[in-house]
User: What shape does this take?
Amino acid sequence: MIQCNYLLKWRDETGAIIEKWCVIKDGTKYLIGEQDEDTMSIGSSRFALTIGKDDDTKKLRRGRRFLVYDPDGDDVLAYQISKPNTFYNLYNGEGVYRYVMREDQVTKNDNKELMIADYYNWDSNERQDAVDEGVSEGRWL
Assistant: This one.
């Protein structure tokens, strides 16, 4: 059993705010966290995200963005799911999903105060499958 260390937040396809406890670990190990290009440095950090399987997390896909940082800090970073693993840690349909998330650019559509990526450009016409509203109370995976 591992104690969750982060409360991940996002808006679902209905516009509801979803909050789930999860485990986030460093996924870069020996990288320096930046990649130099011609005239600028681009973040290259990676995180490993482990989150319980439920009706809300079943909808997470490659490309989904999150704001992940100390909510009391000044510098907020965005991350995007780049490698989903939704089968390896399941037993009889129960368990956890694991994702690799790569660093992404923070945009004007992100709400840093609420720590929700793509908060301002939510569009009800871009729905995936419908899910029920809900907030997970669990802090352990």
Remarks:
- Residues 31-36, 125-137 have pLDDT under 50 and may be disordered.
- The radius of gyration is 15 Å.
- The longest strand covers residues 94-104.
